[in-house]
Write a structure and sequence with these properties.
The chain has 607 residues and is of the alpha/beta class. 35% of the residues lie in helices and 23% in strands. The chain has 19 helices and 27 strands. An 8-stranded antiparallel beta sheet has the order 3-2-4-1-10-9-11-15, covered by helices on one side. The chain has a 7-stranded antiparallel beta sheet with strand order 5-6-7-8-12-13-14, covered by helices on one side. It is globular and about 80 Å long. The structure holds 6-O-phosphono-beta-D-glucopyranose.
């Protein structure tokens, strides 16, 4: 996924565009560029590498009151100066920035080259600039709509033309585009993060919508020019929520924000009178719930792992068969969608294309989908039939942390809500409610042991391989722990159900390869201990995350990380926190780019 920004108004666009790019850098950071209409005409500057490289290369005298900009996560054409956006047409008057994939780009390119157009990059996006040039529309928006009619694929675009310095034309299909309403100025962006410093009033474009944005306002229409009505909405978070503050990295800030994030996820949702959870956005009656025979969860990356953890929670509290699968594989297995099955899509950004496609597949086949989403107003949230916003706040670091634990809290609330409609007793409801209420302070207790976790992380940061194991509801904890270590420290880490170790992976256990064991004091404690013994017998170092109280354990392990005991259903929430800090400190010790790990993006809006 990439980030696009646009501005038209009375101020100099360049600093606004560059600051907007910095706010969107988590969307892609392998190259960037800016285009403004200056007195001398269209000026385009782009460079491979981080945005700081681009801003250092920008001529000081570059000025203009209308412009567009882009930060890239390469899909077509390697990250270099020529392939960086914006892309221009042959006349050098039109500039385009694009987030998405044009599937029929090579066919269109061949047609345009046959008509004499000269291409200067290997990207799919450049065809758009030439298509707009080739369109015989007097107005820029007419030309843009004609060009968009010819392409197949996904896009979030912004376009400027030096002959029309009064406006920016934006459009979306599949990739998010939001307009920001200012005083005699307007903003365009892929995400509100790029414009909250300037305005809290925004308009989300829908698929196949085109917007003409000028300093005095905007108008929207469909691709075939039918006007559409849009009502502005208020952004939930202020500018400071997107700021790193005194933290060295967004990742550490977001790990430390988890108590407050979980408090926001719980806020107003615990109903102590009926010992249940109040979830107002599900659009499901108790009657509907009684018809539900199965629950299937889909998501990608950490959202998928949170889904596996959520499946354990929901099934334990409702006795409804619940499982999870990767959204990226879902529709390609031609899934059987059943009326009595409820689908739940999990996504922090609400923009991940694979998860959106899974939601659309279920709905296309007549199924019902709930969303557990962080980003308010995001595409998946607006596509689902109902859902739960987790209100964890903006998550900027590419590796997700606070949205993982807040998503687990949301699943516990969903399980409580449905369980109390079915046969979960009031006493059990009360038990879960008081355990949930204790979680934020228990997380604070775990975060207070950050220095001890750091010491353990530094001890193993130089290892090339690591294993993470856990049983049943602790297996998704192992998966997420391994994911974090892979994502940010680039150490090869694999997660296994502890019981599976002896059926293969045990062959890799040796003194060089440590194993992290998620070992809560639940009914599988002794069983998991035997897996631990198998590792020790092969002199594999063992790091255990567990609850206090077993005097035998210190002698059996190399390192012990303790978390407070909670209800077994909620164990994964607390057990994950030390693994986040473990991964963070390993990555810092290895000098990794913590918030923008190589090859990754915060959410991938292309399939
Ligand atoms: C990946 C991110 O691109 O997408 C992961 O790097 C994330 O951190 C995954 O878990 C899914 O993103 P989302 O926004 O759908 O939860």
């Amino acid at each position: 996924m990439c980030g696009i920004v646009g501005y038209v108004g009375r101020q100099d666009a360049v600093p606004i565009l560059v600051e907007g790019l910095h706010r969107l850098e988590y969307r892609g950071y392998d190259s960037a560029g800016v285009a403004v209409v200056a007195r001398s005409g269209l000026q385009v500057h782009k460079a491979a590498g981080k945005i700081r490289q681009l801003s250092a290369a920008l001529p000081k005298r570059l000025k203009g009151t209308v412009g567009i900009a882009h930060t890239r996560w390469a899909t077509h054409g390697e990250p270099n100066d020529a392939n960086a956006h914006p892309h221009t047409d042959c006349s050098g008057q039109i500039a385009v920035v694009h987030n998405g994939i044009i599937e029929n780009a090579s066919a269109l390119r061949a047609q345009l080259e046959a008509k004499g157009h000269v291409f200067r990059s290997d990207t799919d996006t450049e065809v758009l600039a030439h298509l707009i040039e080739a369109a015989d529309g007097a107005d820029l928006d007419v030309a843009v709509r004609q060009a968009l009619m010819a392409i197949e694929g996904t896009y979030g675009i912004a376009v400027i033309d030096a002959r029309h310095p009064e406006c920016v034309v934006a459009a979306r299909n599949g990739s998010p585009v939001v307009l920001g309403l200012g005083d005699r100025e307007m903003y365009v962006a892929s995400d509100v993060a790029a414009l909250v410093r300037h305005t809290q009033q925004v308009v989300y474009l829908d698929d196949h919508e085109v917007a003409v944005v000028s300093a005095t306002g905007f108008r929207t229409s469909t691709l075939d020019a039918k006007p559409t009505n849009k009502s502005p909405s208020q952004v939930q978070w202020g500018y400071e929520a997107y700021d790193r503050g005194a933290y060295p990295h967004y990742l550490l800030k977001e790990i430390m924000e988890q108590p407050e994030a979980c408090e926001r996820t719980l806020k107003g949702r615990l109903d102590t009178q009926f010992s249940t959870a109040h979830l107002g956005g599900l659009n499901l009656t108790a009657r509907d719930w009684l018809d539900i025979r199965r629950i299937r969860i889909v998501g990608c990356g950490s959202a998928y792992y949170a889904g596996i953890g959520g499946a354990h929670m929901v099934e334990a509290l409702t006795r409804v068969p619940t499982d999870a699968e990767p959204a990226s594989e879902f529709r390609y297995r031609n899934p059987v969608i059943e009326k009595e099955t409820l689908y739940v899509a999990v996504s922090q950004s609400g923009e991940t294309a694979d998860t959106l496609a899974a939601v659309q597949e279920v709905q296309r086949k007549g199924g019902r989908v709930l969303g557990i989403i962080n980003t308010v107003g995001s595409t998946i949230a607006r596509t689902c039939d109902g859902g739960i916003y987790i209100h964890a706040g903006p998550e900027v670091s590419v590796a997700s942390t606070k949205t993982f634990t807040s998503t687990l809290i949301a699943f516990a609330l969903l399980g409580l809500h449905l369980g109390r409609i079915r046969d979960l007793s009031p006493a059990d409801g009360k038990r879960i409610i008081s355990a949930l209420q204790a979680i934020p302070d228990q997380i604070r207790a775990v975060l207070r042991s950050a220095e001890q976790i750091k010491a353990v992380a530094l001890k193993y940061a130089s290892r090339a391989n690591m294993f993470f194991i856990g049983r049943a509801s602790s297996y998704p904890v192992a998966l997420e722990g391994a994911q974090k270590v892979k994502e940010i420290s680039y150490i090869h880490a694999e997660a296994y159900p502890a019981s599976e170790l002896k059926h293969g992976p045990l062959a890799l256990i040796c003194p060089e390869t440590p194993t992290v064991v998620a070992l809560p004091h639940d009914d599988l404690y002794e069983k998991t201990l035997s897996s631990l013994e198998e590792i020790r017998a092969r002199r594999g170092p063992v790091i255990v995350v567990t609850n206090p109280g077993d005097e035998r354990l210190p002698a059996k392990v190399d390192d012990l990380l303790l978390v407070p005991p909670t209800d077994p259903v909620l164990n994964p929430i607390l057990l994950t926190i030390p693994l986040q800090l473990f991964a963070y400190h390993s990555a810092v010790a290895l000098g990794r780019d913590i918030d923008q790990p190589r090859n990754l993006a915060k959410s991938v809006t292309v399939e």
